[in-house]
Amino acid sequence: MKTEKKKRSFVKRIGKRESESILTKRSTPEKILFGIVFVIFALYALTLVLPFVFMFISSLKSSLEYIDDLIAGSTLGLPDKWMFSNYVLAFTEMSVQDSMGKDVYLPQMLLNSIWYTAECIFASVGASALTGYCLSKYRFKLRGFLYGIAIFSMTIPIIGSSGAAMKLAYNLGIYNTPLYPLLTGFSGFGFNFLILYGFFSGIPWSYAEAVFMDGGGHGTTFFKIMLPQAWPAMLTLSIMTFISAWNNYMTPLLYLPDFPTMASGIYRIKLTFTRGGNYPAYYAGLLVSTLPVVLLFICFSDIIMKNFTVGGLKG
Amino acid sequence: MENEQVLTKPYSEDPLPTPKKKSAMSNKRAERIFLFLMLALPLLQWLIFWLYVHLDSFILAFQDKRTGEFTFQNFEKFWEMLTSPKGEIKIALKNTLIYFSTEIIILLPVSLLLSYFLYKKILFYKGFRVIFYLPAIVSSMVMVETYTSFISPNGPIAKLLELFGGSIPPQGLLANASTATTTIVVYCIWTGFCGNVLLFGSAMARVPMEILESARLEGCGPFRELVQLILPLIWPTMSTQIIFTCTGIFNSSGPILLFTNGAYETETLAFWIFAQIYGGGKYGGSGNYNIVSATGLCFTLVGAPLILFIRWLFDKIPTVEY
């Protein structure tokens, strides 16, 4: 109890000391500068929040009202009647056709998004953890070469290989199959590698030595000691991969045409609107598709902000 | 420095406390097996999906699409598309360089400024930090849809312009070759700070407070603090980001597919390649992988030395350890 009190007062003292730091005291010109910047920031932030307001309001209008408002220039006008039924319509009526002519509806797209994203996270973060750990903690003959290919692959601007990649996907039989994201995503020498390499480098080797003393092996050290310690970085990377995979419409469009995800499927739905369509229901679907990433970000924003660091490229 | 210390005392240098040679040998063997099991799959993946793909792309560039015979035809076609007045690749290259310049000249420096003020705990900084990152987490379709509605001839931006005597042409800004690319570039600026702000913000958070405090005691203002103290201290992150941006020079693009699908001279190299591959001809793409590979090879030959030079140049700049 006493220790708790002591701890609390210490934290208070530290907090007070930080708030009293000379860095937080601003001169008058600085206050003016920060005031102007604050106004600019606030306006910019407002423009970034507006899309959600626009989407939400538009998703609750009737099709006719939406078009009328668009012509009249009152896109942000509130709906006459709040049509929450558009959200039901989005899930029951909006669909795209696969190559066999079968309709794929939004719930199926949601399911596709879930497994596609899960595969991307597992493959990308998993592979990077393996390579990041080995290259940061062991000295072996191929270490320099492997680090070299990681940096080379990331920093040499090679473009135009998508044709060959598509050809390979066809030849391997993974084109338009759930295996595609798993196999192509299992890349241990990308940006995630760089982050995990840095993270593992910071974990002292003495932990491993203690495991060896107790008769543990390299596998035990990695899975039971090192990996649990790297969870902040791995969680951050998983969230980042989640966000990018969930929103990625290009890859599913190119390589998984029969497995439309929320992102690629909604894009394809929009393509069918050439002669008008139910835009409010489309916006409802779009809004629902963004919900998981927004919620995830709200829950983990602090972790992401703290752990997303990249150092230099020198190995 | 810390990383180096960890690396200089790896397991292999200070082995297990068993003096027996046999035991040491078996430990070395166990280490090798462990490393093999850990690295075999990622390495195999790299060999197939990176090395093989790029080698095959190189071969494709010299192959005829139908017969598969050796030819320079793809390069001739590439040259024609690059040099003819309305050549697709010429337009795509011009637009790509516009997007790249925007990233380097506008997005990176402004992101640094944004990060600085957030780091300096401007009022409501926590909220700003989350809001500024929204474009990175929300599907670009949401942002594009809103932007397109707002800049439509009857949209809120048009209403705002009317107050100042301006207007948006009746066909809109995106359905006009002279304004379409600029309109998409403005969109990219609007939504493009998020990733950099996160990276720079994290790097700034690690800057030792004592350095900034002592500088402040000596009368250092915000500009000098940013340029002469923080920038050198976060240089490893900054230089990595610049190198990555330069690496993506020929991939620089906006969401062309969502805005115009390449119409009104908005194509970029990345989009042009996508359009050639998309559906292998089935959904409208040409499916001509050979011309894509030839084009890619030409730009790689230009880009690779450039990047190597930039990396060499950046390596010359001393980094501060702290």
Describe the structure.
The complex is a heterodimer of chains A (315) and B (322). Chain A is built from 15 helices and two strands. Chain A is mostly helical. Chain A folds into two domains: 25-93; 103-307, MetI-like fold (Orthogonal Bundle), CATH 1.10.3720.10. Chain A has a two-stranded antiparallel sheet with strand order 1-2. Chain A starts with a helix and ends in an 8-residue tail after the last helix. Chain B has 322 residues and is mainly α. Chain B has a single domain (74-316), classed as MetI-like fold (Orthogonal Bundle). In chain B, helix 4 (88-119) crosses helix 15 (269-277) and helix 13 (235-247) runs antiparallel to helix 16. The N and C termini of chain B lie close together (8 Å). Classes of the chains: A mainly alpha (315), B mainly alpha (322).
Task: Please estimate the helix content of chain A.
Answer: over 70%
Summarize the largest interface: chains and residue counts. A-B, 111 and 128 residues
Cα shape of chain B = flat
Identify the CATH architecture of chain B. Answer: Orthogonal Bundle
Low-confidence stretches of chain A: none
Q: Taking all residues together, what is the mean pLDDT of chain B?
A: 87
Report mean pLDDT of chain A, rounded to a whole number. 87
Poorly predicted spans of chain B = 1-18
What is Rg of chain A? 25 Å
Helix count, DSSP H or I runs of 4 or more residues of chain B? 16
Q: Structural class, judged by helices and strands of chain B?
A: mainly alpha
Q: And the CATH topology of the largest domain in chain A? A: MetI-like fold
Order of strands across the widest beta sheet of chain A?
A: 1-2
Notable traits:
heterodimer; A: 315 residues; mainly alpha; MetI-like fold; 2 domains; two-stranded antiparallel ribbon; 15 helices; 71% helix; B: 322 residues; 16 helices; 70% helix; disordered N terminus
